[in-house]
Design goal:
Blueprint (H helix, E strand, L loop, with lengths): L1 E12 L6 E12 L3 E5 L6 H9 L6 E6 L2 E2 L5 H8 L3 E5 L10 H6 L9 H14 L15 H13 L5 E5 L7 H16 L3 E5 L3 H5 L3 E4 L3
Parallel strand pairs: 3-8, 3-9, 6-7, 7-8
Antiparallel strand pairs: 1-2, 1-4, 4-5
Helix pairs in contact: 5-6
């Protein structure tokens, strides 16, 4: 079953003679339970595609369906509501808040839910344990290694149990061994039922996914 479908998606930036067409009538689907790699040269629209799926950016034309329901977003608050319990996002440079502890950075993923404080704490500690960073709960991002930062970012993305995790070059800032460890974590999450889309330039990362889509510039 398709988790989401995109049909004839068009997205451009700028106006008139300065207009740049980034996505031109793109159609694709992401199936429930798959781990999809999206590849392509710089400027091919990979991050734009991720932002449209996440509700961070908005398409110019075309149709977007999530679980067979149309997605029509026009403002930031629409995107926040849409992502809740649906989509988690992991970015290359972690995007952690340095003044927040590891625990607080992960718990941020539950801020837009109606869970009680007790429920949020229980869920957050479960995720810290799952990612083997429970001992780091009271530390701050500047005190962490690159791998520990990315585990924390993954925790924030999955703590709300989203249907889909979007990862934009999730290992791009890591050394080879840490990259391998993070991919092991993402693969295990996928095997446990989380659907994933990973943007990557790395063919070794792409080969660990269940399917590869290449965007042409």
């Amino acid at each position: 079953m398709a988790l989401l479908k995109l049909k004839n998606i068009t997205k451009s930036y700028g106006k008139e003679e300065r207009r740049t067409l980034v996505l031109d009538r793109l159609s694709m689907a992401i199936e429930e339970g798959e781990m999809l790699a999206v590849m392509g040269k710089s400027g091919s629209g990979k991050t734009t595609l991720l932002n449209i799926i996440a509700g961070i950016d908005y398409l110019d034309d075309g149709d977007y369906e999530f679980l067979d329901e149309p997605v029509n977003l026009r403002k930031t608050s629409d995107g926040v509501r849409f992502r809740r319990n649906r989509i988690g996002i992991i970015v290359q440079h972690f995007a952690l808040i340095n003044d927040f502890t590891v625990y607080e950075n992960v718990e941020m993923g539950l801020w837009e839910t109606k869970m009680s404080q007790k429920e949020r704490r229980t869920r957050t500690m479960q995720i810290l344990d799952q990612l083997d960073i429970q001992a780091l709960a009271d530390r701050y991002p500047p005190e962490l290694s690159g791998g520990e930062k990315q585990r924390t970012a993954i925790g924030r993305a999955i703590v709300g149990k989203p249907r889909l995790v979007l990862a934009d070059e999730p290992t791009g800032a890591l050394d080879n061994q840490t990259e391998h460890n993070i991919m092991d974590i993402l693969t295990k999450l996928n095997q446990d039922g989380t659907t994933m889309m990973i943007i990557t330039h790395d063919e070794d990362i792409a080969k660990r996914c269940t399917r590869i889509v290449e965007l042409k510039k």
